[in-house]
Design brief:
This protein is mainly beta and 161 residues long. The protein contains no helices and 13 strands.
């Protein structure tokens, strides 16, 4: 599986069907402000620093066990990390819930580092679990220009453009 995002899914801080179960922290103008936490009836948990009722820095643990941690703007993670319960890991800069710059590690043992578009690596480095390293420009997860380094250190130049 080649993508490094979670589809087109965005991670909103509060879904309409979620109801507060418990909350702790300071309030300002009837909204959570500064350090605090919110637990929802779904099992979701927000912890960290809030401004005007919105999480701006901290951790969002979703009901499926996925953890988003870092800086949030407009109810979405913009920098930090996402760790799924299954073990997929993303770290870096995010736009609309998708990794755009940073690194990802997938269940198949592949590590991708660099620039991403629509959840796919377009420029950077892809390291396989068998030791092969692909560096350069990618299209649909395939190296089209750059180098391939084998586990024994042999380097091959690739140019399909």
């Amino acid at each position: 599986m080649g993508g490094t995002g979670f589809g087109t899914r965005s991670f909103n801080v509060i879904e309409a069907r979620e109801v507060f179960k418990t909350w702790t922290g300071s309030f300002k103008d009837y909204r959570l402000h500064e350090e605090g936490s919110i637990e929802f009836n779904t099992g979701r948990m927000l912890e960290g620093v809030f401004e005007k009722g919105f999480l701006v820095r901290g951790k969002d643990t979703l009901k499926d066990g996925t953890v988003l941690q870092g800086v949030f703007e407009n109810c979405q993670l913009v920098s930090g990390s996402i760790t799924s319960k299954s073990g997929i890991f993303l770290q870096g800069v995010f736009e609309s819930g998708m990794l755009v710059k940073g690194m990802s590690k997938s269940l198949d043992g592949i590590t991708r580092e660099g620039i991403f578009k629509k959840g796919k690596l377009v420029e950077g480095k892809k390291t396989l679990d068998n030791g092969f390293v692909f560096e350069g420009k990618f299209e649909d997860e395939y190296l089209v220009e750059g180098t391939v380094t084998s586990p024994n250190g042999r380097v091959n130049v690739v140019s399909l453009l």
